[in-house]
Amino acid sequence: MRAKQKAFAYGGLPECRSCPVRAVGVCAGAGAADLPSLARGKTYRSFAPGDRIALAGSELVEVATMLSGLATMSRTQERGTRQIVCLLQPGDLMGQPWRDKVTFDVEALTHVETCAFRADVFEDLLEQVPGMRASMMEKALDDLDTARRWLGVLGHRTARQKLASLLVLLAMRQAAQPPDNGCVVDMMLSREQVADLLSMTFETVSRQIAGLVRDDLIRPLTRRVFEIPDLRALMVASGDDADGGPTRPDPPAARI
Q1: What is the pTM of this model?
Q2: How many Cβ atoms from other residues are within 10 Å of residue 29's Cβ?
Q3: How far, in Å, CA of 243 to CA of 229, rounded?
Q4: Contacts (Cβ under 8 Å, ≥6 apart) of 20
Q5: Average of per-residue pLDDT values in the chain
Q6: Rounded CA gap, 104 and 204, in Å?
Q7: How far apart are CA 105 and CA 199, in angstroms?
Q8: What tens digit of pLDDT does each residue of 196-246 get?
Q9: Where are the alpha helices (DSSP H) in the chain?
Q10: C-alpha angle 240/242/248, rounded to 5°?
């Protein structure tokens, strides 16, 4: 990992008790009595956009929780092209305990801040704090569910549905509370990065964005920030209904 320790935009290094992602990170399972142990082992790190946070195949030195920003997790395929496999957002874990090597490349898309532990220290904490171990298991299962849903997005949906699904995912993650209707989403990705993530071309991404704008499902505020006037309508366009399940075609009309 290539980083430097730096004070946060929150106005100084946050204590564990007031950590902005404690409720959604692995540390959610730690009780008040466990927080001093966490505080002794943590190191805050800061990465600039484009910094390589982790390199696939290198020795696993640290495990870290994202505190702010957006990063990509990717792999290099046999033909030399890079495939983005997921986006890392605040609360997500970087690095896998009990592994010797880093599995994927991780690169900062925006300014990224992390709370890092030496891998062996983090593994000891998981053994000593049962609540953290339970949170780790729950997060792993959530990540597995997300990966399965994403496979469905990439394998069985149209280009329009893929892009709409990404916008819905980002909107839900960025909102402090699930939006009831409209919201604003910062895609934080270039057209090229969206194309890598969704296995599409740059031209296809541009056409699909234009199509969603034309249908008033999104309204551009900047090149990367969009207003979503009706999140439920965008969910339907993504192939999901308002409850997150796949939409079904209307039943055939009864014959008279």
Answers
A1: 0.73
A2: 19
A3: 18
A4: 10, 14, 67, 68, 90
A5: 83
A6: 27
A7: 18
A8: 888 889 999 999 999 999 999 999 999 999 999 999 999 999 987 555 455
A9: 35-41, 119-128, 130-156, 159-174, 191-198, 202-214, 231-237
A10: 45
